[in-house]
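Standup notes
- DV: blocked on the single-chain target, sequence here:
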Amino acid sequence: MDNTSSSAKKAPTPALPLTDSVQEALAITKRGVDELLIESEFAQKLARSEQSGVPLRIKLGLDPTAPDLHLGHTVVLNKMRQLQNLGHQVIFLIGDFTSMIGDPSGRNATRPPLTREQIEANAATYFKQASLVLDPAKTEIRYNSEWCDPLGARGMIQLASRYTVARMMERDDFTKRFKSGTPISVHEFLYPLMQGYDSVALKADLELGGTDQKFNLLVGRELQKDWDQEPQCILTMPLLEGLDGVEKMSKSKNNYIGITEPGNTMFAKLMSISDVMMWRYFELLSWKSIDEVAALKRAVEEGANPRDAKVALAQEIVERFHDRQAAEDALTDFVNRSKGGIPDDVPEVALSGAPAGIAHLLKQAKLCASTSEAMRMVDQGGVRLDGAVVSDKALKIEAGTFVLQVGKRKFARVTLTA
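- DV (later): unblocked, structure below
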């Protein structure tokens, strides 16, 4: 962990001209971003890369804290893919070392560190899922234990000497926790330092992250200066709103679209977003060009049905995570459901106890969480039996096989016996 910094001041390098292709690359980079710091520096990095033919090193670090990704996670992966398509070297960094510390970003309590077994289990599926967005053949995969483990106690102490407690306390989450008397463990201060040291080890030109990662990304920029490296630029992406259009996409809020969900489910969920939110999804998730999206938006403003644009978005996303046939099948299934039809892939459920009350059946078939919710859905006209609306909450159903439906997307083919 030798510091090769030199105190000698270098003469400023003359600015390179920004060609049309560099300007176009900059526009693609800035699409949908929250911040690009420092834009003028990154423009020069792009210009130098074009002139020299040496691709920029683009870093994204992800701690494998959960094994499944949703569309919200892919926002930053989409940006990586755009930069990959521009010819730059993207580095998918799995934080197997930093996961054992636990990222405190945005937390109001200490994040429990993961065990080695949990990390390995989650990391095993991470890149496979990320490869549905990134080109795996052109992606450099690294694990930060490569350089973090060899540091040892001496190296960690030397690294910790690079940053003051006052600088660490500039983080909003640390400040809020300190003022409220919520404990902050000493090891949490190490997280941003270790993430920053990743940038030194990888000689990153640009690091990507969510808006909640800004402080950590800036630490990397400062540490690179200590190692006499040109400081990385940082790019933060906004957090994608979920299906409710309000809260950020999250499994805990049940407003998410998982990238491993069936194509029909993904399609139906995407069709449920509002016409306004659709453009947000286009900007952050679609691989259509800026001009193509602008043309779609213009057509809708001039009277085209926004549903057609939403179908195009839903098919694009389903095709990306499945295939073209799945996208076509999902559209057919959605149209069938919207006409009151029954989809082909209805789960089979075997139950006993005929004759059975409709509310009890809906709960047993896991179409409603409780009998009270089932009653409410009947009252709202949201329950169908073999396609016919059920209006009687006291309805008793005899033995047989039939299809129950709740809302637009929940179905079960029930075989009921005595």
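- Follow-up: Confidence is low (pLDDT under 50) at residues 4-8, 106-110.
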